[in-house]
Amino acid sequence: ILMNSKKQKKLNVAVIGYGHLGKWHCEKVRTSDDAYLKAIVDPSSLSRSRAKEVYPETIIVSNLEELNGIEIDAAIVVVPTIHHFEVTQHLLEQGIHVFCEKPLVSRMDHGEALKKMVKEKDVILQVGHSERFHEAWERKSQISKFLDGRAIIKFNRKAVSKGRAKDVDVVQDLMIHDLDLLNFLVGEKPSALKAWGLKMVNDKWDSVTAEFKFPSGKVAFLTSTRNYVEEKRYLSATNEKGCLLIDFLNHKLKTNEVPGEGSEFVLSEKTYSKRDHLKIEQDLFYSSIVNGAPVAVNVDDGLKAMGLVEKVLKSLEDQKELIL
Fold first, then answer.
1. H/E element, 177
2. pLDDT tens for residues 169-199?
3. 3-state secondary structure of 157
4. Which residues 6+ apart lie within 8 Å of 272 measured at CB?
5. Beta-carbon count within 10 A of 109 CB
């Protein structure tokens, strides 16, 4: 993606957090034409020794202070959500560009503070909403007509328990993907929201359904569950023009379209290519640093998704509909 990558020296990148997702991010940095994996930061000695085996050339340290004096251009933050704010803030203060995994933060005031800092320090902050990079969205004209007017939209995201992300509820863990897609696909603010949920393991919500109503008459139902019997990830939409189904797991886009007067419905099924979302996100991140390209998912996008997360959680706790 970088225009002048042959002349451009590679960006020195630090990956903060060498857990499940951090390992994948390190792999993408290593294979990038635009970035060099300069450092890995992880407080766990076990994680550090594992990282050292895979990346013997890379500087591996236990905390951010140990990066002082090392030339770092950009950092990828893949730590538990509760630490996103302090880590991202520290890096931005040093003038380091940051790609932070979703959710950006767990509190809106923290997000606003980061937004202010991005402006003051003139740095890039990109949020890791990877579901925006399905190839399906490049067929927006085929998709958007089924989301118009009084559409009924459903997002389902169900996962078998993986034993990870127990520090956050399912809204911040899984539903946030679909809350971001809802913002991305529906250019309209919801007017009301009601959520229902269950806690199955500890004091965190494990299964949640949220209903959003919009001024145009459309409604969206989002269901996220993380102890389900199988993996399911899809978007369906129905309106006067017909029906749409996007199966994110199997990369299928199906439509059943109302034709002209008197003729039969037209059923269509297409597959779309599976893509490496992490690699695409990283490439776009490096491009906005070097070429000044627009930030793919910026701090405002991250805050919008977080705003909806906060409202879903409020409706769950209060057990009532919120008028927005």
1. helix 176-185
2. 999 999 999 999 999 999 899 999 999 999 9
3. strand
4. 134, 135, 136, 139, 251, 252, 253
5. 8
Distance from first CA to last CA of the chain, Å, rounded? 40
pLDDT of residue 6: 46
Amino acid at residue number 82: I
pTM over 0.85: yes
Q: What's the rounded Cα separation, in Å, for the pair 175 and 177?
A: 5
What does the buried/exposed string (b/e) look like for 250-274 if buried means 16 or more CB atoms within 10 Å of the residue's CB? Answer: ebebbbbeeeeeeeeeeeeeeebee
pLDDT level of residue 166 (50, 70, 90 thresholds): low
| CA atoms of 274 and 249, how far apart (whole Å) | 9
pLDDT of residue 264: 83
For 52-100, write each residue's pLDDT tens digit: 999 999 999 999 999 999 999 999 999 999 999 999 999 999 999 999 9
CA distance 309 to 303: 10
Residue 7 has a pLDDT of 53
Residues 6+ apart with CB under 8 A from 264: none
Residue 34: helix, strand or coil by DSSP?
A: coil
Give the tens place of pLDDT for each residue, 96-153: 999 999 999 989 999 999 999 999 999 999 999 999 999 999 988 889 999 999 999 9
Orientation angle between helical segments 277-290 and 20-30, nearest 10 degrees: 60
- Structure tokens of 155? 């997002």
CA distance 249 to 267: 20
List b or e across 26-44, with b for residues whose CB sees 16 or more CB atoms inside 10 angstroms.
bbbbbebebbebbbbbbee
Beta bridge partners of 222: 155, 210
User: Could you check whether the bond before residue 56 is cis, i.e. omega within 30 degrees of 0?
Assistant: no
Rounded Cα–Cα distance for residues 59 and 164 (Å): 27
SS3 92: helix
Give the integer Cα–Cα distance in Å for 235 and 156: 7
Phi/psi for 124 (5° steps) reads -90, 135
